[in-house]
Amino acid sequence: MMKRLLAMTLICLMALALFAGCAGQTGSRLDAVKKNGKLTIAMEGTWSPWTYHDESGKLVGFDVEIGQYIAEYIGVEAEFIEGEWDGLFAGLDSGRYDLVINGVDITDERREKYDFSDPYAYIRTVLVVRSDNEEIKSFEDLAGKTTSNSIGSTYMELAEQYGAKVEGVDSLGETMQMVISGRVDATLNAEVSVADYLREHPEAEIKQVAATAEANRVAIPMPKGENSADLKKAVDEAIAAMRADGTLAALSMKYFGIDITNN
């Protein structure tokens, strides 16, 4: 009799432990963010003017201020973690980051893996070559050529779609230097980033030869799933608030000199 009671007690304890474990997993990601008091945001930190370091070494940029606004809207601190492009998504997959804010384009492939916020910017992709290059005048001319782009970026994917071989890089500056030095034939990048680079380096021997007809939608990816629904709602509300109070357009003018926040 005692053995049976002991066995039943053990079974009940195991059931309670299992229930408690499951209950602990039902909290939303937003609840966890508020409990921790911080929103963990991943970005490269090397892509001016989206996310970069100023002369004092401080992390600044369009996406940095957007991340700060969202964190303040939620009522927590923004914790920025920098890394290489492909590592940003690996961290999102593992649950290390809550968001990636780094000028990320919405694509069908990414939608399969991540939930996205509403778009907060719209940008076209441009094709850049060295000033004396007369062979490449359109995206179709990339067949058999080489480009420099971040591994896993939409720019890399587009270059490969047109038949180019892509050399991986870590920063916009490195990308441009590879084009200027002749190590690669071209690069694809955001129109606004190229314009910003030329403002900083007016002597750079590069030129823009083509641009996509339609603008890419830039948004914020986050882990996919029901427990991220509250976080997505909060991020979307923050973006809507930024639009309504003029912050979004003002930040665009501050960092790009044009308003890229409307399609």
Structure description:
The chain is an alpha/beta fold. It folds into 2 domains: about 130 residues, D-Maltodextrin-Binding Protein, domain 2 (3-Layer(aba) Sandwich); about 90 residues, D-Maltodextrin-Binding Protein, domain 2, CATH 3.40.190. The chain has 10 helices and 15 strands. The strands form 6 sheets. It has a 3-stranded parallel beta sheet with strand order 4-1-5. Strands 6-14-8 form a 3-stranded antiparallel beta sheet, with no helix packed on it. Helix 3 crosses helix 9.
Structural class, from secondary structure content? alpha/beta
Q: Identify the CATH class of the largest domain.
A: Alpha Beta
At the fourth level of CATH, the homologous superfamily of the largest domain is Periplasmic binding protein-like II
Relative helix content: 40-55%
Query: In one word, what is the shape?
Result: globular
Number of helices: 10
> What's the helix-strand series?
HHEEEHEHEEHEEEEHEHEHEEEHH
Low-confidence stretches: 5-25
- Biggest beta-sheet profile: 3 strands, parallel
Q: Give the N-terminus to C-terminus distance in angstroms.
A: 75 Å
Number of strands: 15
Sheet-strand content, in percent, reads: 15-25%
Q: Kindly report the oligomeric state of this protein.
A: single chain
Strand order in the largest sheet: 4-1-5
Q: How many domains, as an integer?
A: 2
**Gross CATH architecture of the largest domain:** 3-Layer(aba) Sandwich
Rg, alpha carbons = 23 Å
User: What do the pLDDT scores average to?
Assistant: 90
What is the CATH topology of the largest domain? D-Maltodextrin-Binding Protein, domain 2
